[in-house]
Structures are given as structure tokens and as C-alpha cells.
Amino acid sequence: MPRITLGLVAHDDKKADMAAFAATHAAILGALALVATGTTGARIMERCPGLQVTRLKSGPLGGDQQLGAMIAEGRLDALIFFIDPLSPHPHDVDVKALTRLAVVYDIPMALNRATAERLIRSLAG
Ligand SMILES: O=C(CO)COP(=O)(O)O
């Protein structure tokens, strides 16, 4: 059976939280194909050297749009995106486009840790 592909993204103030989340669930994540925006992916691999993460461009430079394209092409099965709702983002339109496509294509999407904790359990083999 093909591996599930999971997208991982975190805004700057949520990156430590994402790294901790990845460390907690490294065993589950290790069985998935992981794709992340540039800086998020770097932080995850720094914290969890055993995890293989395909890194796209950084979010503000097109990484969110790359993930959106993967969704549109049927190449992303689920998305965990720790958004920071308390900070402005220059690429807010890209963030909106990504989350919109996740809804359009009805892929499971967690935008905060509480939901991600539930979603990740559903992805465990
Ligand atoms: O900006 C982001 C999501 O909108 C995340 O991008 P980075 O992981 O490159 O910081």
C-alpha cells in the first residue's frame, strides 16, 4: 500500500511546538512520507534527526503554494499546519489559499495542536 503523505507547516511562533509534536510522534511520522515548508522542515529534522522530511520552499517564498499544488494534484493526503493567529503574515493570501484547497479537496487538516493530536492517531498504521 502506498505511504500516506502528510504536509507539516508551522508559523514562526509555533515552530517549537511543531518540533515538540514531531518528537512526541516520531514513531508514527516515521512511517509516513513527510513534506514540509522549508524552515518548518529544517526545525523538525534538527529535533528529530531520524525523520526524513522533503523540504519545499519557505512559506513566504512559495512553500504554502507548493503544498496547495500537491493537494490539487492529489499528492497530499493530510495537512498539519500550526498557524499563529496573533501575528501578521506577509503571505497571508498563500496561507488562505492552502487552507482553502485542503477544504476544497476535503483532506484532513489540523490547524492547532489539539486537533493534530487526534489526527496523528488516525494516521498511525
Ligand atoms: O510561512 C509558513 C507557513 O505559512 C511556513 O514556512 P516556513 O516553514 O518556511 O517558515
Automatic annotation (TrEMBL):
The active site is at D64. The gene is mgsA. SMART domains: MGS. Belongs to the methylglyoxal synthase family. HAMAP family: Methylglyoxal_synth. One of its GO terms (molecular function) is methylglyoxal synthase activity. This is Methylglyoxal synthase. It catalyses: dihydroxyacetone phosphate = methylglyoxal + phosphate. Residues 1-125 form the MGS-like domain. One of its GO terms (biological process) is methylglyoxal biosynthetic process. Substrate binds at H11, K15, T37, G38, T39, T40, S58, G59, H91. PANTHER family: METHYLGLYOXAL SYNTHASE (PTHR30492). It is an enzyme of class 4 (lyase). It holds the Pfam family MGS. InterPro entries: Methylgl_synth (IPR004363), Methylglyoxal_synth_AS (IPR018148), MGS-like_dom (IPR011607), MGS-like_dom_sf (IPR036914). The chain crosses the membrane at residues 18-37. It comes from the Bacteria. The keyword Glycoprotein does not apply. The lineage of its organism: Bacteria, Pseudomonadati, Pseudomonadota, Alphaproteobacteria, Hyphomicrobiales. Keywords: Lyase, Membrane, Transmembrane, Transmembrane helix. GO terms for cellular component: cytosol. Its EC number is 4.2.3.3. Catalyzes the formation of methylglyoxal from dihydroxyacetone phosphate.
